[in-house]
Amino acid sequence: MLAEEVRSCALAWALGSAEAWEIDELNILQASLLAMARALRSLTLAPGLALVDGTQAPREAPCPLITVPKGDGRLASIAAASILAKEARDETLRRLGERYPGYGFERHSGYPVPEHLAALAALGPTPAHRRSFAPVRRFLLASPQEKEPRSS
After folding, report:
1. Domain residues for 136?
2. What DSSP state is assigned to residue 114?
3. Structure confidence by residue, pLDDT tens digits, 82-98
């Protein structure tokens, strides 16, 4: 697998994440920047410089940062990081699919496909769903008795 090759060749690598409630509280961009900063802080080797895919970078980072628009298509190091991030996201969604059957997390990578929207309407949101996500927000507004997401 390509991710295994990336991990075996890297001097250091780390993943960062943000919880659904943090995304709701901060917004998706700020939560992504928070996750980047967490990943940088958890590296076992202190980087002298980090390249960030996109046009924005976390303000609080342990090293200087350079943003690279469309960096995953331009630089091998950013593409490698993107592979690790995508693999981690897919694994998280596989686990969510096991924990919350019926939503199809493991099949649609968390995108709002018709299957997932139908499951939200039928089953209600889980703690993994962002309350700021429009279909979840609509469900909560339409079902006042469903104030708390479905737990496992």
Report:
1. 110-152
2. H
3. 999 999 999 999 999 99
DSSP 30-60: HHHHHHHHHHHHT-SS--S-EEEESS---SS
Tokens of 131: 């309350």
Phi and psi angles of residue 54, each rounded to the nearest 5 degrees, phi first: 125, -165
Q: Is 105 inside a domain boundary?
A: no
Could you tell me if 74 and 128 lie in one domain? no
In a domain, 136, yes or no: yes
One-letter amino acid at 75 equals L
* Mode of pairing for the β-strands spanning 50-53 and 65-68: parallel
If asked whether residues 127 and 60 sit together in one domain, one would say: no
Provide CB contacts within 8 A for 57, sequence distance 6+: 33, 36, 65, 66, 67
Q: Work out the number of other CB atoms within 10 angstroms of the CB of residue 3.
A: 17
pLDDT tens for 19-52 read 999 999 999 999 999 999 999 999 999 999 999 9
